[in-house]
Design goal:
single chain; alpha+beta; acetate-CoA ligase activity; ANL_N_sf; GMP Synthetase, Chain A, domain 3; about 25% helix; Rossmann fold; about 25% strand; 10 helices; about 325 residues; AMP-dep_synth/lig_dom; five-stranded antiparallel β-sheet
């Protein structure tokens, strides 16, 4: 949403609306109330936030007039179809398109974005943005986009708005973005992507978050999407951990709905649910229950921190965390 806010909005003399605090305090309709009261026209939000808010009764949305909304925005992480449809139908009234984009501060633009001339498909990001030479490649740097396989999202060339270096220096810039693929050199965006048979592009999470179980890869969002379909689950986070048999095993952390009790029977229900949706190899080795996840200020779950705590590793840079107290709960999860 950065390019919209910083460049597009100021170019056309628009007004930026800012708020402080949690989206469900003092009530779960805080977003919908602000849109109604201030007649906001463009509303951007993360899939994680929508997954949490849609668990509340629909009346929290329906009692507000959201007809001022013309565009819905999203960025940062993959969608699950159920949450995408809820956002489109309940918040956008099946009229406001969801402009799901993938970009970054270092690009100041969008690698992937739906064009006004394109139809929308749930969870898709449309296709390459204007001026972007984007591809999906395997670990050898070979294009797999037209084979509809999952691979690394890369840029085969620079774009005019792309940063030329980092404050820390050229070496870190080159190592971070241009060192994964060298012949030919390509910008490695760090995302796991796929183009389907209809030409629509999808993200499946960060490449380093991908779950490679017994030679098959899925994004954590797919495991999480299966888990939150259970009526007792409010939020879910899936991480991969080393396993002697399959190479990687799935460990799931779950935030339950109010009034739902933790039980071994529930754990088995959730494991079975993932197995039915994605196949037995992806059934979580463990299901652990917590009250909240560590998140960034924009609402993204910090999965690398969850994985590090489970494995007893160093957390690394946590400067972006919004709720550091959640780390203790993850560490103590059972």
């Amino acid at each position: 949403m950065g390019p919209w806010t910083l460049i597009g909005n100021h170019t056309f003399g628009g007004t930026i609306f800012m708020y402080e605090g949690a989206p469900d305090y003092p009530e779960p309709d805080r977003f919908w109330s602000m849109i109604d009261r201030h007649k906001l026209t463009t509303f951007g939000i993360s899939p994680t936030a929508i997954r949490a808010l849609r668990k509340y009764d629909d009346e929290w949305v329906e009692k507000h007039d959201l007809s001022s909304l013309r565009l819905l925005g999203s960025t940062g992480e993959p969608w699950d179809p159920e949450s995408w449809m809820w956002f489109y139908e309940k918040v956008g009234r099946s009229e406001a398109p969801i402009i799901n984009i993938s970009g970054g501060t270092e690009i100041c633009g969008c690698f992937l974005m739906p064009m006004p001339t394109q139809p929308l498909k749930p969870c898709s990001l449309g296709g390459p943005g204007l001026g972007m030479n984007i591809d999906v490649v395997n670990s050898q740097g070979e294009s797999v986009a037209d084979d509809h396989e999952r691979g690394f999202l890369v840029a085969r060339d620079s774009c005019p708005s792309m940063t030329k270096s980092l404050w820390e220096g050229d070496e870190r810039y080159l190592n971070t973005y241009w060192s994964t693929f060298k012949d030919p050199p390509m910008w490695d965006h760090g995302d796991w992507a796929q183009k389907d048979e209809d030409g629509f592009w999808f993200l499946h999470g960060r490449a380093d978050d991908a779950l490679n179980v017994a030679g098959r890869k899925v994004g954590p969002a797919e495991v999480e999407g299966a888990l939150i379909e259970h009526e007792g689950v409010n939020q879910a986070a899936a991480v991969g951990v080393p396993d002697d048999t399959t190479g990687t095993a799935v460990v799931a952390y779950v935030v339950l709905e109010d009034g739902v009790d933790v039980s071994d029977a529930l754990r088995e229900e959730l494991r079975a649910l993932v197995g039915e949706e994605l196949g037995k190899p992806f059934r979580p080795r463990e299901v652990l229950f917590v009250d909240e996840f560590p998140k960034t200020q924009s609402g993204k779950i910090i999965r690398r921190a969850i994985s590090a705590l489970y494995q007893g590793e160093e957390l690394g840079d946590m400067s972006s965390i919004e709720n550091p107290e959640a780390l203790e709960e993850i560490e103590a999860a059972k």
